[in-house]
Amino acid sequence: MTELPPGIILILGAIFVPFLRGNLRNIYMLALPIIGLSSLLLTSQNYQFEFNLFGYNISPVRIDSLSLIFGYIFHIAAIISIIFALHIKDTVQQMAGLIYAGAAIGAVFAGDLISLFVYWEGTAIASVFLIWSSKTESSYRAGMRYLIIQVGSGVLLLAGAIIHFQNTGSISFEKMTLNGLGPTLIFIAFGIKAAFPLLHNWLEDAYPEATVTGTVFLSAFTTKLAIYALARGFPGTEMLIWIGATMTAFPIFYAVIENDLRKVLTYSLNNQLGFMVVGIGIGTELALNGTAAHAFSHILYKALLFMSMGAVLYRTGTIKGSELGGLYKSMPYTTGFCLVGAASISAFPLFSGFVSKSLIITATAYEGHWVVWAILLFASAGVFHHSGIKIPYFAFFQHDSGKRPKEAPINMLTAMAIAALLCLIIGIFPQRLYDILPYTVDFIPYTTTHVVTQLQLLFFSALAFGWLMRTGLYPPELKSTNLDFDWSYRILIPKILDRISKLILILDNKIHLIFKNIIDFFLAQLFRHHGPSGILARTNTAGAAVALVIASLGLFIIIFFVSD
Amino acid sequence: MTLGKKVTQTNSDDKSYWLDSKKNVDKIWYALIGLCAISIVADFFYHKHVIHPIEDLIVGMYGWYGFIGCVFLVLSAKLLRKIIMRPENYYTENNDD
Questions:
Q1: pLDDT tens digits, residue range B52-75?
Q2: DSSP alpha helices (H): ranges in A397-541?
Q3: Domain carrying residue B71
Q4: Number of domains forming the structure of chain B
Q5: With a CB-CB cutoff of 8 Å, which residues 33-62 of chain B face chain A?
Q6: B97 CA to chain A: closest CA distance, Å?
Q7: Which of A100, A110, A196, A464 is 20 to 30 Å from A381 at the Cα level?
Q8: If DSSP codes are grouped into helix, strand and coil, which group holds residue A112?
């Protein structure tokens, strides 16, 4: 292979974007990932390119079955996101999107930890511009928090890599065991980007603040890069099973009561990552296949859902469930595409989620993790509930909001159509996806048992939604902010710091007061003795002085004679 | 958000849609109940391949699990609101960061 490393074409290509105008620029931007994808399809597997730099074995390109599937889907996601964003003329966003996608692609093909670190930080820095491009005060602040956390993750990765190198003498990015400081730091760095519980909040904080088109880019790359990195570095790490299970269950409670529909989708993104993390934790071939397959189909349906909500935001100016409703009347195509995405994420038979998520759940059952299995099943029902039903219901149906926005622009519809079509192709012809998985697949998703049990789960979840709605038990969409873990660093810690600084101020005043009192006391004493009426400043009569002199003279004479 | 002139909406139209009628919404509801019933009945007509006996504990086990799970999810999320819900501009008012 003599061509450039994957991803570089997008990063370098972005430099020329400002010099092109109009349709030429659009064609050029689309051509970059298409060329990248074609060259990737032509490369041979198991290729590795290495060189030596200052004694480190740098390996910027490693192509194997695990990196390839992520490479394919990242290119496809880039193509779809670019089509979705074709109507915008904002050069900053266009360049940021390309560099971000390129860095993510580069990262999955990085064969050593230093190259990984470079791309890792690249994704952080490029992507923040997609948040800042919203040009609001809150997006600026959210972007700042996002950048600090993302760059922090990279710093941990670098620190871990250096320690790992000192201990093992190798910088190559291979499977690690989670003991010692080096791998632990790397694990935490991956965990931040994968939005582990309590490390997750940058996701829900920043993604809903990004631009209409920016969120589509964001939804695809950062977190799935982390999933890839975990699958490469820590497969079979048992802790991941429990971390993943928590991730599937805990965000869905928030998703139910959240009013900002793009934020609902972010919570459900976090939940979907949980399934992938469980797969990595189990670490069998079936489970890792499941993680890769689920990442692949997840990127497509999640982008599709974000695109449909993006189109709603673009046309109506709001994405709050409490202000929307009845949009299917004037945006029928967007509604249809959203429903395909909803069916896919809910894992309806014939849609993509069904053939990918089942690999992970089955692997959990095979390994006898029944508690985790039950949690995943609960989370699956929950996903259908908030992403499958809530999103389309509150945006496009429920009560009529009276809004009659125009249908989404043609480029948005095209992007949604491509994503929807791919969701269906994967769902109907799963073997096409299974063929590119890291390991050989011996799994048939469409068995009677699987189809019937899945339909039971979904129909009854829908029944629960309908029942809660009809009885009025369902919590209404309310304009609100729901506190999540970011509360700790946005409110609690600042408040504590504020209290501490106030306490220090009080203490400082007290100490001042004490010293002031001491000085006052000293001055008072001085005044008492040396002041106008002080004993040492008293003016005595001349007679008394003469008497004192005579008395001391007398005393002197006595001593003189006595001692003689 | 820079949405600008692209925000186009008129406030309502005279066209009536199939879903506007409450009767039709009811039809969907009954169809859903029917589908649930069919999916349960279907359990009697094939041999269920299970990995663990818990999957076949009762007829329609997955259905009941989904229903109870979702009701639990929604009602506990509703309770969660009591603890974590704040006004929409909570963070801007509290002058974060």
A1: 777 777 778 899 999 999 999 999
A2: 410-428, 430-434, 448-470, 486-487, 493-530
A3: 20-84
A4: 1
A5: 33, 35-36, 39-40, 42-43, 46, 48-52, 54-55, 60-62
A6: 6
A7: A196
A8: strand
